[in-house]
Design a protein that fits this description.
The protein has 101 residues and is an all-alpha fold. Helices cover 51% and strands 0% of the residues. It is globular and about 35 Å long.
Length: 101
């Protein structure tokens, strides 16, 4: 498939074709958490996703998984959803090109 939109440097470039939904659902399953639709719809960056997952895990869950392990898991799910494996993913990385700086 040819994509006509430019790639922005700090974006997963998920394109809004459902990949982001699959990523969120995979994260919910992996960490045994549930996002409200309104929470998921407000997510723009990987940092926001990290913070939300950490808050959903609660104190006991956050103690059971290190920040590094959580971040690694989130990036893994982003890559499985279609994020370019050659691009660096940081807290400011957006899901969609339209939100990237």
């Amino acid at each position: 498939m040819i994509r006509l939109f430019p790639h922005k440097a700090n974006s997963l470039n998920l394109w809004g074709d459902g990949d982001e939904i699959e990523m969120i659902e995979a994260i919910e399953r992996a960490f045994a958490i549930r996002f409200e639709n309104a929470e998921a719809e407000q997510l723009v960056t990987m940092g926001q996703l990290f913070d939300l997952v950490k808050s959903k895990l609660g104190k006991q869950g956050a103690e059971a998984i290190t920040d590094d392990a959580l971040w690694t898991g989130l990036v893994k799910h982003a890559r499985e959803a279609g994020a370019d494996p050659r691009r660096t993913v940081d807290r400011n990385t957006t899901f969609f090109s339209r939100n990237a700086e």
